Amino acid sequence: MPRQFSPITARKAEAVSTGRPLTRGALAARTRCNIETIRYYERVGLLPPPPRSVGGHRLYAEGLVRRLNFVRRSRDLGFSIEEIRELLRLVDGGTYTCREVEQLARDHVREIRRKIADLRRLQRVFEMMAAQCSGDAVPDCPIIDALFDPDGPSRLATRPATARSME
Questions:
Q1: What span, in angstroms and rounded, lies between the C-alpha atoms of 61 and 125?
Q2: Domain 7-96 is of which CATH architecture?
Q3: Sorting pLDDT into bands at 50, 70 and 90, what band is 142?
Q4: How many helices and strands, by DSSP H and E, does the chain display?
Q5: Distances from the Cα of 5 to the Cα of 14, 94, 95, 97, 105, angstroms
Q6: Cα separation of 65 and 77, whole Å?
Q7: Residue ranges covered by each domain of the chain
Q8: Helix, strand or coil for residue 22?
Q9: Least C-beta-crowded within 10 Å: which of 27, 86, 104, 160?
Q10: What whole-number distance in Å separates Cα of residue 96 and Cα of residue 158?
Q11: Residue pair 66/57 in contact by the 8 Å Cβ criterion
Q12: In angstroms, what CA-CA distances link 167 with 121, 137, 152?
């Protein structure tokens, strides 16, 4: 059964009611998040646009600390901006189920596995290119030559077989 109010939303409301507004610098310090990153999250809609003081300074509610920590932790775990947006949509709606969040997490695990496979292919390409290098102090370098070659080994070896078969 869906929850009526999420624990995050409830705690966020408690923090807002007891805290004073934070400047962007104070928010950055509290969350150990770069100011430019905070601006970016505002631009892409992960953080709401903050109200401004009479002097034009952005004022952030205390509860935004939790939201920014949620976004940062999600990024640390490799979630894309779009995936975080979906997680926040569920949390902000307050009616998410564990099943919905589990599905997003399982989708993310599949994407991680795909990336690991791509990185392993990339590793093999670099090992192959490095094996062709004599390591001598000569201007000819097979690695540089391979990087200039648009049809070189990196192009085919790093792409999944399904993408190669479509050409």
A1: 49
A2: Orthogonal Bundle (1.10)
A3: confident
A4: 9, 0
A5: 13, 5, 7, 11, 21
A6: 18
A7: 7-96, 101-165
A8: strand
A9: 160
A10: 38
A11: no
A12: 19, 39, 16
